[in-house]
Structure formats: structure tokens, C-alpha cells
Amino acid sequence: MAWRIEESLIRGELDNRTRGRVTGRLWFVGRDEPVVLDLIGNAWRDIAGHLLRFTNPNPKAGDLGSFAALQQGVTGDITASRKVKVPDCSMDELMVYFEARKPFPWHWGNSLYLEWHSQTNGRVVIESAGYQLELDSEATWSMDETAEQSQRQANGQALTVFLQTLAETAAADEHGDEDAPTSQSEARADANAARMDRLLDRVMARMEREGLAPNELARVMAEERKRLRHERGEPEPKPLTPDEKAIQHQWIDKLNIAAQEVISEAAAEEAKRSEDGEPAWTATDWHPLVERCYALAHRLMDEPEQHGWLSEADGGEHPLRELVDGVLNAGGKLAGALGSTEDAAAWPPESHLAGATLVRLKKARGHLRDALAGLEEAEAQNLAEAGWRGEIGEELTAILAEVERFIGEVRATLEGDESAAAE
């Protein structure tokens, strides 16, 4: 998902006075020096040609430790005129309205929406209807409605182009970013995943902002999907052909497996057990690597608390908590990527599923690396026992090595398909 850092921002400035370039500086709580923006692309026409300054009246501390001081990449959607429902009450009052099933007081407001795709941090979003905005009076250049429609389409395509550029760079540099795509098929898969992340991000932000009940999710999803298409200037989807419907059914089967991701990530917050004391996920006949990852997660949830190394009072930044959460979240992504023992027999995945599988495998790898970072910090602080840390490190490294192998195999499939198509 995206970095959402609006609460930690103190103030910022965004400069699109040079056509095709967006620069700026962002000041955050806890950081002395500003984050510098250097992005290719343009804002929407309400900001195009202008310098925009903005201030957060109520900044809060946040975790920006791995957020790069230099943000280079491409623009997504950048506007100060997106209309959102703004509650005319506090969050506590909003929950009272929600629990009483009564409509809450609200008004339409302009929301600042800054989105970009960073080489180092991926997708970043700053969205708020509560910032104080100051736009300079004179524009150095202007964008008409037709040009803005083209710009919105270009913003939608920019991520694909950006990822393809990273793919070419990684191919030329054997020590390049391991997460950078190595083929156009992988770049498209990454872009599609980012688009879905963008949609889910907007849906969840709206659900929270408007205090909507879970049964409103399908409606909000459909509305935001349509709204995103409109902003991009994209046509209504065409009816599916019989072949496309067959592929969609295969995707639905895959998505049913992917639902385990949600279960796993929820388990990272609150590990739930079935009546016999075993984790609920053991009821499914998962792929052997998924089973292995979940077995490690089960051990990590039990042993640190049994030995008194970790308590419920220890927050998410505790090294052992980072270790637990990393392995749990990795298990969810692996479940979505690898599925069950039946799927293991059909490995590697078919071409139309390979891209999505690769996206999940790379996310699993990222979570496992987060877990290793937590383990390394536990080592530095001498938390738990040295022998226990060694055992966990060996198993974690072995699982990561298997994930790396699967990533290589799926990439080989995608690259082979592209080579065959080119002949």
C-alpha cells in the first residue's frame, strides 16, 4: 500500500512553474531537514504553473525512519480541488452518529491530494481537507481542460513507463534494485497492483472519513472505481469475451486464495486461535512454503510471550513485534501467491497469472526482510536468548531463499513469454 504521511507533515511547498517538472520541499515532525521532491510530470490545472504552499495546523509524530530525504520519480495525481465529504463534527462524535445509525453533519470540501511514485519508497500519498493552502496569484503557464484530460491519462500511464525504465536500468546493472521489474510484463503487473492499491487506499480512506459501515464497502468500491476511470479519462469497460470470462473465473479462484492475506494481516494485530488452541489458518491445505511460514509465525507468537521476552504492552515498534508481524504478513502474501498443494503441482503459474503471483512474492520478500531487520535489532539489544535468535534466523533465511527462488522462476516465465512473442 501507499505511504500516507499527511498527519506527520508540518508544512510544505510544491512548485509546478516549470512545465513537465514538479519540485518541492516537505517538513515533517521529528526531521530537521525537509524532504526534497524532484518529480517528472505535471499537476492538474488548478496547480499547473503555480507555486503552492500548505500548512498542517495539527501535525503529529509518525514513523518516517525509512522515508528517503530525496524523493525522485514521477507524478501521480496532484490537485487541491478534489471534492470530499468533510464531517462537521469530531471523530468521537462521528462514531456516536455511526453507532446510532444516524446521518452525520457534513459539507463538501476541497481536499489537497498529492501523489507520486518514488524510486526509493514506491507510491506516496498526502491527502487532507484540513490543510491551510496558499496559491500564488500568477501562473507561469496554463493548462486548458483538454490538456488536463491528457495529463490525467498520462498520470495513469506514468507508473507503467516509470517501472519499465527501472526494468531497463536493472537489466543494465547487475547490482540494481532487486524489486525493480526485469521485463515489461512484470512492469505492467507492478503497475496494475499499484492501481489496485490506489483504489483500495481511496476506498478505505473514504470509509474511515465518512464513518461508513462495512456493508457499504461494495457500493463505495464501485463508486471509487468509476470515479478513478473518470479522472483518468478512461472509457467504460467493454463486455468480456468468452475467453476473457474464462480467465476471470481463474482469477476469482486465485482471489479466494488471496483472501488469506487479509486473515493473516489481521492476525498480526490480534492472533486468534481456534478451540483446540491451533491457529485458524491450519484448517487449509496450504502450499508447503506457506505452511512453513505459518509454522514459524505460530512459534513467534507463542514463545516470546511464554518466556517473558514480549508482552501485550509492547507496541509495533518493538523488535520482536516487528519480527512477528513481518512473518505473519509474509505468510499472507505467500498464501495469495502460492495457494494450496494443488497449485504447487501446477508451478510455475500460467502467463496470465504470473504477473500477479510475482507482485505478491515480492511483497512477501519485503515482509521477510522487515522480519530480519527486527531480528537484527533484537540481536543488537540482546533481546530473547542467543540460541533462540539463531534458530529463528536460520529458518527465516531459509524461507527467504525459497521465496527468492520462486521469484526467479516466475520472472523466467515472463521473460520467456516475451521472447517467444518477439520471435
A few lines on this structure:
With 423 residues, the chain is an alpha+beta fold. It is 52% helix and 17% strand.
Describe the structure.
About 8% of the residues have low confidence. The protein has a nine-stranded mixed beta sheet with strand order 1-8-7-6-4-3-2-5-9. Helix 3 packs across helix 4, helix 6 packs antiparallel against helix 7 and helix 9 packs antiparallel against helix 10. It is globular, with a radius of gyration of 23 Å. Helix content is 52%, strand content 17%. The protein folds into two domains: 228 residues, no CATH class; 181 residues, no CATH class. Strand 3 and strand 4 form a beta hairpin. It has ten helices and nine strands. It is α+β, with helices and mostly antiparallel strands and 423 residues long. The longest helix is centred in the C-terminal third of the chain and has 37 residues. It starts with a strand and ends with a helix.
- Mean pLDDT reading: 78
Strands of the largest sheet, in order across it? 1-8-7-6-4-3-2-5-9
First and last CA, distance: 37 Å
How many helix segments? 10
Sequence stretches where pLDDT stays below 50 over 5 or more residues: 170-176, 254-278
The helix fraction, in percent, is 40-55%
Order of helices and strands: EEEEEEHEEEHHHHHHHHH
What percent strand? Answer: 15-25%
What is the CA-based Rg, rounded? 23 Å
Structural class: alpha+beta
Largest sheet: 9 strands, mixed
Please provide the count of β strands: 9
- Shape descriptor: globular
How many independent structural domains? 2
